[in-house]
Amino acid sequence: EAFMLESAALPTNDANITSGDIPMPVWFFVSEMNENHQAVLEYWNDANKVGDAVLSDNMATGIYMAVPNSIDNLLNDQAFLAQTRFTVAEDPEANDQQRARAVWDFLSDIVRPVSYANQTLRPDRTAEEWGMVKRTIEIDGVNRYWLEFVPEQLAQTEDGKAPLLVVLHGGNQLPEPFMADTDVIKLANSRGLIAIVPAGSPNPRDNRMPAPTWNIMEDEGMLDDYAFIRAAVEDTINRLPIDTSRVYVTGLSMGSVGSQAFALRMGDIFAACATGSGMLMNTWSSLFDSEKVQDQYIMPVYVINGSQESGTGFEDESYQTIYANWLAFNGLEADTKAALTGYNRVGKYNIWTYANEKGIPLVQYGLGDGRVHALVLEDLYLLYDGFLSKYSRGEDGTLYYLGEAVAK
């Protein structure tokens, strides 16, 4: 008990979280519930914030679950996953197949996709359990796919149509595992959005297994992701009640980079771009000079990073270069010092804004205190409610901010 209490007080990388604050699904087997075992049980019950009621089944002597009406459950469903279980058995160390299967079924249904920050215990769901449908399309003779989510209640406009959010996974990922990382379904369901999550193209790396990425540099031997994203959006618009004036793109990491690259060339599709943990920097910045960019359109861009990521400060020189590129693209003063129009703080996020002469934000950067390399629900609410949802694009390509036309 003393060791566990000492360990619980140890700090983590997040100054607001100690080791004892981290919920953990636990199931232990003992021959009897002695004083020491009871102390261990009480430790985990406290860490998992469970109730006093003790349930049981044919394998577990005791099962402690979350208090149904606690504030933790109100804010996040993680609490329902952090159960404490124990079994009193004559042979607690026996290699019993039935026992092993029961324990595996209990533990394997739970994942912690982005470390311990941001309340990150998640149920391990299939795409179908997320309520998503797999869609495919052939591009240059290759079948490409995306996952599609349509909420029961759409945020319909007067003509019965809803916004579309394109969500891009990071490098070395695919849509299915990415869903647990992002909570994008919760955003789409609560805001009445239709969301699609496309799968990137394999990157043939030397002597290594190909890994999904976004071919924004149009490397030979790789698939055409520009054609794929455009085709996936057009297919979705043709099948579903999409408000084509409110099509947005977001993503994480390489998906953030890809989102910005696609936004440069698809102003005729996307009204705005807001992403996490990835910038069009270094060699990727050459995309701003491509003849294929649609610089006749204004493209509002918002990127957030986290203090737990490296090299993400607002003053970072490489980031300043990217701000300047986006400012120039949107017809603003490219001097990032002179063009900065505001700073504010929303919760844990520090936000720097570059607005036009009417005060309409066109380039924003956010840095979240304690934020990790992830795109979780609170990030998505910030990006969608605070930025994306305010923009729309007319049939002639004109950008609107809260209904007001924006000109370069």
Would you write up a description of this structure?
The chain has 408 residues and is α/β, with parallel strands linked by helices. It has 11 helices and 20 strands. The strands form 5 sheets. Strands 6-7-9-8-12-13-14-17-16-15 form a 10-stranded mixed β-sheet, sandwiched between helices. The mean pLDDT is 90.
Query: What are the low-pLDDT stretches, counting only 5+ consecutive residues below 50?
Result: none
What fraction of residues sit in β-strands?
15-25%
DSSP helix fraction: 25-40%
Order of strands, widest sheet: 6-7-9-8-12-13-14-17-16-15
Shape: elongated
Number of helices, where a helix is a run of at least 4 consecutive DSSP H or I residues = 11
Beta strands, count: 20
**First-to-last CA distance:** 65 Å
Mean pLDDT: 90
Specify Rg, calculated over alpha carbons: 24 Å
What brief labels describe this structure?
408 residues; three-stranded mixed sheet; 26% helix
Give a nutshell description of this structure.
With 408 residues, the protein is α/β, with parallel strands linked by helices. The strands form 5 sheets. Strands 6-7-9-8-12-13-14-17-16-15 form a 10-stranded mixed beta sheet, sandwiched between helices. A 3-stranded mixed beta sheet has the order 1-3-2, covered by helices on one side. A 3-stranded antiparallel beta sheet has the order 18-19-20, with no helix packed on it.
How are the elements arranged and paired?
Elements: H1 2-8, E1 26-30, H2 35-48, E2 62-64, H3 71-75, E3 84-88, H4 97-108, E4 110-111, E5 122-123, E6 132-139, E7 142-149, E8 162-168, H5 175-182, H6 184-191, E9 194-198, E10 201-203, E11 211-213, H7 225-239, E12 242-251, H8 254-265, E13 272-276, E14 301-306, H9 317-329, H10 336-339, E15 342-346, E16 349-355, E17 361-368, H11 377-386, E18 391-393, E19 399-401, E20 404-406
Parallel strand pairs: 1-3, 8-9, 8-12, 12-13, 13-14, 14-17
Antiparallel strand pairs: 2-3, 4-5, 6-7, 7-9, 10-11, 15-16, 16-17, 18-19, 19-20
